[in-house]
Amino acid sequence: MKAGKLLPVMEEFYSIQGEGYNTGQAAYFIRIGGCDVGCYWCDVKESWDAQLHPLLDVDGIVERAASYPARAVVLTGGEPAMYNLLPLCDGLSAHDVSIFLETSGAFELQGHFDWICLSPKKILPPLEAAFARADEIKVIIHDADDFEWAEQIREKLRPECLLFLQPEWSSAEVMMPLIVDYILENPHWLISLQTHKYMRIP
After folding, report:
1. 152-169: buried (b, 16+ CB within 10 Å) or exposed (e) per residue?
2. In what order do the strands lie in the sheet with 190-191?
3. CATH number at residue 158
4. Is 100 part of any domain?
5. Per the domain annotation, does 31 fall within a domain?
6. 1 found inside a domain
7. Mean pLDDT, residues 5-22 taken together
8. Is the pLDDT assigned to residue 53 strictly greater than 80?
């Protein structure tokens, strides 16, 4: 796996991006297994153990992704940055497929990406290098303390990085009014919703 020719893939599917800046776009999703961050509210805990997911050849992944009409791929997890993604990125780019990475930023990025969504976690904070590469930041708001955490992260980002606050799904009913009030007072932030859950799609 170090060479990046094989990756533990939990699932692949064609759907609509439901979160962040690229919300509403059709894309091919590649969910890579394995994660050491361990957020207790994670809604895909079954992705954490990489050994539960088959090792798939990168060439086959690329072929499947390139067969769909949308020329965009979302690399998600788990934590995809735990692996060398350069061979996968090279293959996708050769087919003119844009690559959107979802990462906590806690691991060194190996690959080239058209868009990087940094979703930092308190449990295992991002590496400093991740802040300079993020195109958008998506801070999950589970409780009121997360607003302060979001501002601490914001201070480390490039001025052009887009800033999103997203309610954690299980506490969204409680946190949504707080997020709305916070953004009204701090309009440098935008709101991100898990619209795919409202649409009941993958």
Report:
1. ebbebbeeebbbbbbbbe
2. 55-57, 6-16, 26-32, 72-77, 98-103, 115-118, 136-141, 162-167, 190-191
3. 3.20.20.70
4. yes
5. yes
6. no
7. 97
8. yes
Look up the domain containing 108 and give its range.
6-199
Average confidence (pLDDT) over 138-154: 95
Residue 138 lies in a domain: yes
DSSP-derived secondary structure for the chain: -TTSSEEEEEEEEEEE--SSTTTT-EEEEEEE---SS--TT-S-GGGS-GGGS-EEEHHHHHHHHHTSSS-EEEEEES-GGGS--HHHHHHHHHTT-EEEEEE-S-S---S--SEEEE---SSSPPPHHHHHH-SEEEEEESSTHHHHHHHHHHTTS-TT-EEEEEE-GGGHHHHHHHHHHHHHH-TT-EE---HHHHHT--
How many whole angstroms from its chain centre is CA 31?
Answer: 10
Question: What is the rounded CA–CA span in Å between residue 191 and residue 202?
Answer: 21
Q: What is the pLDDT of residues 62-100, one digit of tens each?
A: 999 999 999 999 999 999 999 999 999 999 999 999 999
The number of distinct structural domains making up the chain is 1
- Residue 192, pLDDT > 90, answer yes
Residue 29 predicted with pLDDT over 70: yes
Q: CA–CA separation, 90 vs 96, rounded Å?
A: 10
User: Which tokens hold the place of 19?
Assistant: 């979160």
- pLDDT, mean of residues 56-63: 98
